[in-house]
Amino acid sequence: MAPPKKKPSRQSSLSRRSTSARKTEILINVYDLLPPGKLSSALWFLGSSLLHTGVHIPSLSHEYAFGGHSQPSTSGVYWTRPHLEPPGGTFRCEILQGFTFRPALEIEAIIKEVSQRFHGTSYNLLSNNCNHFTSYLCEQLTSRPAPSWLNRAASIGVALPCVVPREWISPPDHDTADGELLEEDEDDERSAMLRQEQRRSHSFHGAGGDDGQEHWEERDAGTPGSVGSGNGRASVRDTAGRKLPTSERAPAP
Predict the structure, then answer these.
(1) Which are the catalytic amino acids?
(2) What is the pLDDT of residues 172-218, one digit of tens each?
(3) CA angle, corner 98, sides to 125 and 193, nearest 5?
(4) Which residues contact 93 (CB under 8 A, 6 or more apart)?
(5) From the CA atom positions of the chain, what is the Rg in Å?
(6) What are the φ/ψ torsions at residue 42 (nearest 5 degrees)?
(7) pTM for the full model?
(8) Which residues have a Cβ under 8 Å from the Cβ of 38 and sit 6 or more positions away?
(9) Distances 3 to 6, 8, 9, 10 between C-alpha atoms, Å
(10) Using CA atoms in the order 175, 178, 183, 189, what is the torsion angle rounded to 10 degrees?
(11) What is the pLDDT of residues 111-166, one digit of tens each?
């Protein structure tokens, strides 16, 4: 007579369930693009600031954002170290957008698919900017778009083009945002990060010591592959011909 089969313990079944359906936070990091001061504080209080956002997925240790560039048929989606302030930007807050129970491979596949919808040459400051990307990616991962107030300034610009802020039309003279375009081969991520560090050494210097905060420095001549405005560097424009602020330029392809 065969021995009776042992029933799986409740603890082991719960362990398998938690492994297969791990809850992953989806966060939105928000950066103010106006210089700190009374104007930026007032606009932030009114919910009408000029904002840059990125989608932070802690389980992947990356923050994903969208910027413009001039390379045809290439995604403008890139990843950076979480909370890395874009040139000219100031970190404002982190929003818990929601959760997903998808495994890491499925999350990465969704990000890859979304990235193909946001080419760098399709960037538009008012109608297809970083906040539109953030909202779309959040909707794919959590079934909820990002808060609408994140893109309120662009909505005002669409309705009243004459009030588009000068800071968006005449961006400061810096190098591009730091990071790597998403189309880098995953198998070659180590070499991609090495190239990132090499560009970083040309673009900015550390503030020293333990906090690891970087400060962007202006350069009289552009680094190889960089895009910018002035000083002989080629400018990057959106689909309406507006020069892109530094914070809204993707890393050079």
Answers:
(1) 52, 130
(2) 443 445 566 666 454 444 444 444 544 443 333 333 334 433 333 33
(3) 60
(4) 30
(5) 21
(6) -65, -45
(7) 0.68
(8) none
(9) 9, 15, 17, 21
(10) 130
(11) 999 999 999 999 998 899 999 999 999 999 999 999 999 998 887 765 545 555 55
